[in-house]
Amino acid sequence: MLEVVGQAARQRGLHPVALSFSPSPGEYFSRASGNASGSQPPRLQRLRDKLACIWAVGIAHIQLLRFNAATAAMAPDAFCDAVLRDGLNARWVIVGDDFRYGKGRAGDVKTLHAWCVANNVECYVMPAVKAMDVRFSSSLVREALAAGDVVTAAAVLGRPYRISGKVAHGEKLGRTLGIPTINLPLWSPPPLSGIYAVRVYGVDVAGGQPVLGAASVGVRPSVKSNGRPVLEVFLIDFQGDLYGRRVVVEFVQHIRAEEKFATVDALKAQMGEDIAAVRRVFAANR
Fold it and tell me: What CA–CA distances, in Å, run from 286 to 199, 236, 278, 279?
């Protein structure tokens, strides 16, 4: 869709602009109902990563609109007047065929098209992207990741699923066990959990090549109760201080689900098996 925006802008001599919300409407309504972390779908990426992906395809400007009570209360035409006409001076608009907007999701592609005609704005409704009659969507990506199916998620995204962040100090348990890990705090409950074979970018800054690793995403039930989600990665064949370094973890294959082990020795033994499994994954894909 963003590539289509860029093409249309070049053809018409316009600036390609993307409009996005922060927080997402789903997050806003969940918080407004008093449910701070429960029912809203998990974010697929940090806001900074989302913006970087949009800029990477040649979008000149990103209009980040704060979604709040005033935004939620706007009728469809009032939203178009304030945001598209007065805010962006839009001359050409693209949306998906399931687009909804305005108070109570009252607006759809028909009401948007009618507003565009009345305001001399071109409107293009992009058909759904499908494969084998399956509609590609963020919901499909979330479902795949929740099942550990990073292969399907990558096919829908057009690239492997990634999580980025700055390496932070953890509890040093991996180092105590002889299996040191880098620790990346997560911005919200992640869309996936378990043990994965991963590639980590940003470690070898000079060469730019990824370092292979075994990643654990989850709440670490063997370590503590009611823990916050964290991403820990054991870097295979690498040693060094990476604290404060921003890295990107690319998920390649699911190894197993997160488990709770009765003893630290059992956890350590399983971590050794996980690392061996990850080595086999990458050896098979050379």
Answer: 13, 16, 13, 11
Residue 28 lies in a domain: yes
Q: Is residue 140 part of a domain?
A: no
Please check whether residue 281 is in contact with residue 197, taking contact to mean a CB–CB distance below 8 angstroms: yes
Residue 37 lies in a domain: yes
pLDDT of 173 above 70: no
Write down the pTM of the prediction. 0.85
Cβ neighbourhood burial of 180 (10 Å; 0-12, 13-18, 19+): middle
Range of the domain at 107: 2-131
> Beta strand pairing status for 122-126 and 194-201?
unpaired
Domain CATH number, residue 58: 3.40.50.620
DSSP secondary-structure letter at 168? B
pLDDT digits (tens, 9 = 90+) for 83-117: 999 999 999 999 999 999 999 999 999 999 999 99
